[in-house]
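Hi all, a correction to my earlier message: I attached the wrong file for 996_t:CDS:1. Here's the right sequence:
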Amino acid sequence: MASTTSSDINAFQNALKSAKHIVALAGAGLSAGTHDLLVNLVSILCQHAQQALPDSTQFYPLPPFIYIYLTFFAMAHLSNASFVYKKLYVSSYYSRRVGGAGDGGLWRKYDAMSLATPRAFRANPSRVWQFYHYRRELVLTKEPNRAHKALVAFEQKILSQASSQSSDTPTFALITQNIDGLSAGIQNLIEMHGMLFKNRCTGCGDVRENRNSPIVPALEGTENEEFEREIALKDLPKCEKCNGLLRPHVVWFEESLEASVLAEIQKELFRCDLVLIIGTSGLVYPAAGFRHAVKIQNPQAIIANFNVEPMERLETLETGIDFEFIGPCGQTLPEVLGVKAEVDRM
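and the right structure:
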C-alpha cells in the first residue's frame, strides 16, 4: 500500500468538494448484507480465469499506456471481468456452487459457470431460465442497504447544487459490476454486466425491464423444487414486440461488453478527477485497471477505497490509493460522504 494513503475524513471531504467529475466503481461489497448468497456471484463467475492464468501471481513491468489498453481490451473482450492479476475473493461457504432454495436446493448441484453461457441457453433455455428465475426471486426479497442509499443521497446532493448558469456543476456516475438492480435509485448508472430484471429478445434485440414475480406462470415455484422442470419453449418468457424468446440481459461467458456500455465507461473514466472504489478487490480485470487508467490519464485524480480490507498493490504497481476507509460499506460510506443524516431518513 502506498505510504501516502490517508484515512482522514476531513481531508477527503475537502477533496470531494473540489472534485468536478466523480465516478464510483462498485463491486459485490456494495450489496453485502442484502443478499449474501448472491452477492459474490460476480467473483464466482470469474473463477475460470484461474485456469486461464495458472500462475497469476506473476506480473511483469509494462509501459503505462499498456495498462489503459489492457483495461479496455478486457472490458471489450473478456466476459464478466475474467482476467486476474493475483487472486479472487470468493465466499468460503459459497464455494463454486450456486445455492438453491434453503440448504439443499436444486441449483446447488449446478456449476454457475456451466449455466451462464450462450451455449447453455441454446442447449437448454428452460434450465437457464429456471436458474435465473431463482436468482430473480432471491433479489426481489431484498431492499437497498445503507451503502446503496448513501450513494443515492450523495448523487441527490450533487444534483441539488446544479445550476443552468454554471458550467462547473459537479457530476456523478456509478459504474457497477453488480447485476442485482439494487442501485436503481441512481440516475447516472452504468451497469457493466447488465441487470437481472432486464431481458433481451433473441430475435429483434429489444430490451425491457420486467420485475414481475414470476416473469411467466410456468416458472412459478421452480425456485423451491428439488427436481428440474421441463418447461416447453412456448411457455418461457417471450418478447412483447415479436414474440421471440427472451434471455436475461446480462453478460455471459463468451460474450463481450456492449459497445455502448464500453463507450459510456470510457467517457466517465477519462474525464473524472475523483474515483470511489466501493466493495471491490480491484484485482480482477477490467475493474483492476480502472484506477491505474484514471491516474495515467489524470495524475492529479484522487482515488478513494471503501472496502473491508486494504487494497493490495499489483506486484510492480503501487495501489494508487489516496484515501482508504476500511469497514463495511454500509457504515463507512454514509459518514465519509457526509450523508449519514439523509440515509437515516431514507
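Sorry for the mix-up. Residues 36-67, 77-104 have pLDDT under 50 and may be disordered.
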